[in-house]
C-alpha cells in the first residue's frame, strides 16, 4: 500500500487539522460541566458568554419579543422537527449554489459528469446535495405527520397548517425539478412522463402547467440534442427555492405569534390551546418554566449540527449514483437519448410513487381528480375537524375520526409507493384504488372504536382523578444532570476515536486522493453528529432552574 504524503496534499491536512482542533476544543466546556454536576439545581450561570448574550439582547430585544422563550417541556426533538427541515433547506441552498457554478443547462449531463469526475470534492458535493434533497422531503413528511397526530393544526393555527401544506407542495415541486436537471435517462423519462400525466389536471390546471413547460422549437438560442425544457427547469428550480424561503419566513412568523403548542396530555376539552393562556403553569410548574436564551441557542445549534452531520455522513458513506472506477468517481446513470427512452419504463423518485400509483390504477383524468382530492383534504383538514368532526381537544384519544383518517393516509401512502415501485411500466388496474378504499375502511373500523370507546374514557378518567402536575421534576433533572457528566466523557472518547480512525483511513488505507472526499465527508458527518449530542447534553439537558434573559 502506498502512503499519502501530507505535504503533497496540504489542503487535506489543513482540513483534518481544523476538524481536530474543533473536536479537542469542545472537550473543555464538557469537562467543565462534569466538574459542576454536583451544583445545586437553581444555580445561575454568569459566564462571559451568558453576560454577552444578555448585553446583546438588552439592546436588540429579540428574545421574548421577536423570538419567544420556550418552556422546558419543549426541549425534545419532536418539538424541533421543523428545525430539522429548515436545516436541510439551508444545506440545500449552500450546496445548490456550489453545484450551479459548474452546471450548464445547455449541456446538463456532461456538466454533471464533469462536476463528479473532474472537480475537486465535486462528487461528494453532488452526493451531498442529492441526499440533502431526500432528507428535506423525508423530514418534512415526518414533521407534518407529527403535527397532524398532536393536533398542531387546530384553532388558531389553521393558517400555519395551510402555509405548511404549501411548503410541502413547493418542496415536492423543487425536488421534481432538481431530479430532472442531471438529464440522465431515468430522471428525464420520469420527468416527461409526469408532465404528460399532469396535463390531464382538471379545472384548466393542465393548461396552466403547459404554459410554463411547452417550449416553441423555433425559439432562438435552442440547441439541438438537449430538451430546451432543461433551461426552464433550471430557472424554475431557483424561483421555487425563493418561494420556499418566503413561505418559511411566513411560517416562522405565525409560529412565533402563537407560540409552541401545549402538551396534548395537558389540554382537556374546552381548555385553551395557546401557551399564553397557561400563565399559572408557566409560573409554578417546573416543566413549563420558560427557558433562557442560552438553551434556545444551544437547541438551534444542536439541530443544525445533527442535520448537517447526518446528511454528510450518509453522503460520504453512500455516494449518490456514483462509483469509484480506476480511482475516479463515475456517474452511473446513463445519458438521456430518445431511442432508449422509448424502451425505458418511467420510474419517478420515491416521494412521487404514491401519485404515480393513481395513474397506473385508473384513467389519467380520474387519477388527477383523486390526487387533487388528497391535496384539498390535506389543506382544509383543520376546518374539516372543527366543523365536521367537532373534536374538542388535541389529544389523539379525543380525535378518533381524525386519527383514523391520518392513519389511512399513511398506510395508503406506503402501500401505494411500494406497489408502484414493484410494478415499473405496468398498469395496476382498478384493484389499486379498491385496496386504498379497503385501507381507509379498515382504519376506521379498527382505530375509531378503539379510541372512542377504549382510550377516550381512560384519558378522561385520568384527568378527573389526578391533577395535571409533574411531581419530583427538579429531583429527576438533577439526577439526569449527574448522568450527563458520564455521557459527556463517553462522547468525547467517541469523538477522538473517530478522529484517529478517520486519519488512519485517509492517510494509511487510501492511496487515491479522489476517495478522500468521501472519507472526509464521513468523518465530518460523524463529528458533527457527536457535537450535536454533546451540545444536547451540555445545554439542553443541563437542567437547572434559571431565570430568563
Can I get a quick summary?
The chain is mostly helical.
Which terms would index this structure?
549 residues; 2 domains; Cytochrome Bc1 Complex, Chain C; disordered C terminus; mainly alpha; 19 helices; two-stranded antiparallel ribbon; globular; single chain
Molecular structure report:
Residues 1-12, 26-46, 469-484 and 543-549 have low confidence and may be disordered. This protein has a two-stranded antiparallel ribbon. It contains 19 helices and 2 strands. α2 (27-35) packs antiparallel against α18 (473-509) and α18 runs antiparallel to α19. The protein is mainly alpha-helical and 549 residues long. It has helices at 10-25, 27-35, 48-60, 81-100, 108-117, 122-149, 158-180, 185-198, 205-213, 229-258, 279-284, 293-317, 338-341, 353-361, 364-389, 400-422, 431-465, 473-509, 516-540, and strands at 322-325, 328-331. The protein folds into 2 domains: 1-67 and 471-549, no CATH class; 81-215 and 227-391, Up-down Bundle (Cytochrome Bc1 Complex, Chain C). GO terms for molecular function: electron transfer activity; oxidoreductase activity. InterPro entries: Cyt_b/b6_C_sf, Cyt_b/b6_N, Cytb/b6-like_sf, Di-haem_cyt_TM.
Amino acid at each position: 500500500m502506498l502512503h499519502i504524503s501530507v505535504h503533497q496534499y496540504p489542503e487535506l491536512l489543513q482540513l483534518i487539522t481544523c476538524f481536530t482542533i474543533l473536536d479537542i476544543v469542545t472537550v473543555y466546556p464538557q469537562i467543565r460541566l462534569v466538574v459542576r454536576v454536583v451544583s445545586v439545581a437553581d444555580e445561575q450561570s454568569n459566564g462571559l458568554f451568558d453576560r454577552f448574550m444578555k448585553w446583546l439582547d438588552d439592546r436588540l430585544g429579540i428574545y421574548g419579543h421577536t423570538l419567544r422563550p420556550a418552556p422546558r417541556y419543549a426541549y425534545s426533538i419532536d418539538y424541533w422537527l421543523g428545525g430539522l427541515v429548515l436545516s436541510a433547506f439551508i444545506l440545500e441552498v449552500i450546496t445548490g449554489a456550489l453545484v450551479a457554478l459548474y452546471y450548464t443547462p445547455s449541456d446538463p449531463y456532461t456538466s454533471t459528469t464533469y462536476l463528479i469526475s473532474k472537480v475537486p470534492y465535486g462528487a461528494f458535493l453532488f452526493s451531498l446535495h442529492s441526499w440533502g434533497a431526500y432528507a428535506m422531503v423525508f423530514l418534512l413528511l415526518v414533521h407534518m405527520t407529527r403535527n397532524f397526530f398532536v393536533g398542531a393544526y387546530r384553532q388558531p393555527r389553521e393558517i400555519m397548517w395551510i402555509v405548511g401544506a404549501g411548503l410541502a407542495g413547493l418542496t415536492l415541486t423543487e425536488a421534481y425539478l432538481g431530479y430532472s436537471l442531471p438529464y440522465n435517462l431515468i430522471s428525464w423519462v420520469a420527468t416527461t412522463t409526469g408532465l404528460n400525466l399532469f396535463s390531464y389536471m382538471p379545472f384548466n390546471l393542465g393548461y396552466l402547467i403547459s404554459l410554463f413547460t411547452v417550449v416553441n422549437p423555433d425559439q432562438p438560442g435552442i440547441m439541438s440534442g438537449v430538451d430546451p425544457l432543461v433551461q426552464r427547469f433550471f430557472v424554475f428550480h431557483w424561483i421555487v427555492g425563493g418561494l420556499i424561503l418566503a413561505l418559511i419566513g411566513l411560517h416562522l412568523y405565525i409560529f412565533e405569534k402563537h407560540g409552541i403548542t401545549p402538551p396534548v396530555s395537558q389540554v382537556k376539552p374546552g381548555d385553551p390551546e395557546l401557551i399564553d393562556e397557561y400563565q399559572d403553569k408557566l409560573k409554578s410548574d417546573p416543566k413549563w418554566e420558560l427557558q433562557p436564551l442560552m438553551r434556545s441557542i444551544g437547541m438551534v445549534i444542536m439541530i443544525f449540527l445533527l442535520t448537517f452531520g447526518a446528511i454528510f455522513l450518509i453522503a460520504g458513506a453512500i455516494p449518490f449514483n456514483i462509483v469509484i472506477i480506476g480511482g475516479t468517481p463515475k456517474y452511473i446513470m446513463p445519458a438521456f437519448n430518445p431511442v432508449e427512452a422509448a424502451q425505458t419504463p418511467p420510474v419517478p423518485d420515491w416521494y412521487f410513487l404514491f401519485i404515480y400509483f393513481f395513474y397506473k390504477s385508473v384513467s389519467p383524468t380520474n387519477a388527477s381528480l383523486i390526487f387533487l382530492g388528497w391535496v384539498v383534504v390535506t389543506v382544509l383538514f383543520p376546518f374539516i375537524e372543527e366543523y365536521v368532526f367537532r373534536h374538542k381537544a388535541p389529544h389523539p384519544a379525543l380525535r378518533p375520526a381524525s386519527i383514523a383518517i391520518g392513519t389511512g393516509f399513511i398506510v395508503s401512502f406506503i402501500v401505494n409507493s411500494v406497489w408502484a415501485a414493484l410494478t415499473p411500466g405496468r398498469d395496476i388496474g382498478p384493484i389499486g384504488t379498491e385496496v386504498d378504499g379497503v385501507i381507509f375502511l379498515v382504519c376506521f373500523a379498527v382505530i375509531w372504536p378503539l379510541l372512542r370507546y377504549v382510550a377516550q374514557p381512560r384519558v378522561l378518567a385520568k384527568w378527573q382523578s389526578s391533577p395535571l402536575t409533574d411531581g419530583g421534576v427538579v429531583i429527576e433533572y438533577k439526577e439526569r444532570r449527574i448522568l450527563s457528566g458520564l455521557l459527556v466523557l463517553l462522547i468525547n472518547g467517541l469523538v477522538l476515536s473517530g478522529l484517529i480512525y478517520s486519519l488512519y483511513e485517509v492517510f494509511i488505507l487510501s492511496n487515491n486522493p479522489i476517495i478522500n472526499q468521501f472519507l472526509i465527508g464521513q468523518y465530518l458527518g460523524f463529528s458533527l453528529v457527536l457535537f450535536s449530542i454533546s451540545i444536547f447534553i451540555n445545554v439542553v439537558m443541563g437542567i437547572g432552574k434559571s431565570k430568563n434573559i
